[in-house]
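Run log, item B.
One chain of 76 residues. Sequence copied directly from the ordering sheet:
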Amino acid sequence: MGNIKLKITVEMVETQDPVTTGNDPERMDDGSFSMVLAHAAEFDISRLENVMLRTTYPALRTTISEYLEDASKKSQ
């Protein structure tokens, strides 16, 4: 088995999508997770950091879970 490469990409882009309601990120069709903040949060570093952490956590957990599932299948 080869080495494991971890690759994380984070994007912040302007959008016309509606603001996310609630505290949970939305899983997109491509497997990524996203949240849309109101324009007023643009310079609120604490809010940006909090939402970024809440958005990346499910992505990390999902990736780890899927990786371990695939790895266990390979080892059987």
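Observations after the first pass:
- The CA atoms of residues 47 and 62 lie 23 Å apart.
- The helical segments are 45-74.
Flagged for discussion on Thursday.
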